[in-house]
Amino acid sequence: MSDIQSNISADEALQRLREGNERFLHGEIRLAGQVREQLKGLEHSQQPFATILGCSDSRVPPEVIFDCGIGELFVIRVAGNVFSNEIAASLQYAGAHLHTHLFVVLGHQNCGAVKAALTNRDQGEVHRSRIQLLVNSILPGLPPFDPGLSPEERTTQAIESNIRWTVQQILDTPEAQLRLKEGKVRIVGALVEIKTGHVKFFD
Q1: What pLDDT sits at residue 39?
Q2: Terminal Cα distance for the chain, rounded
Q3: pLDDT digits (tens, 9 = 90+) for 89-104
Q4: CB under 8 Å, gap of 24 or more: what pairs does 10-13 form?
């Protein structure tokens, strides 16, 4: 593992994620069975090359779908990949102390948190108290839908909108604004196709 991972540019980091996902899709896993080897040299520090804000869903572990080893990604996971003050603090830590230049908001197909937000908005279903707090974080990012869309299309559109909503909330923070002015940081959204594991990055 490189000792200069934190010096990788945002564009280089994004390319590494793309290449890792391609290896995963083709079954060409780079680091299978090397966990103990990966841990060597990481006892006192970490130098991840990218930060991922992903959903808690058990089907989409970022390290697996991007074929990354221990110490290569700084991963924050929360149901619905929603934004909060606690998430902002973790992102700030990644930028200020781990010096990652790429930040990815990673959502996925059939996200249960987004589906819960849809049933709350469209059918008035109220969820358990703490789940409803999570739903409330998603609702502002849901768009009005074309009435001609199928339920599946509505769900997909809502999931993609939620990813973009989280990206926008991050972009609006003073910390992100400052780092973006420096021209060294990228904040992008991405969607995992559950059936295949393919990751689509948003422009």
Answers
A1: 73
A2: 29
A3: 999 999 999 999 999 9
A4: 10/101, 10/102, 10/184, 10/185, 10/186, 11/186, 12/49, 13/49, 13/50, 13/100, 13/101, 13/102
Give the Cα separation of 39 and 22 in Å (integer): 24
CB–CB of 40/34 below 8 Å?
A: no
Which string of DSSP letters, residue by residue, matches 124-184? -PPPPHHHHHHHHHHGGGPPP--TTS-HHHHHHHHHHHHHHHHHHHHHTSHHHHHHHHTT-
CA dist., res. 63 & res. 178, Å (int): 28
Q: How far is it, in rounded angstroms, from Cα 193 to Cα 160?
A: 12
Round to whole Å and give the CA distance between 192 and 84: 22
CB 138 within 8 A of CB 164: no
More confident: 29 or 194: 194
CATH topology for 5-201 is Beta-carbonic Anhydrase; Chain A (3.40.1050)
What is the rounded (10 degree) CA torsion for 91, 97, 98, 103? Answer: 20
As a whole-number percent, the residues of the chain with pLDDT over 90 amount to 80
Q: Give tens-digit pLDDT for 78-135.
A: 999 999 999 999 999 999 999 999 999 999 999 999 999 999 998 888 888 899 999 9
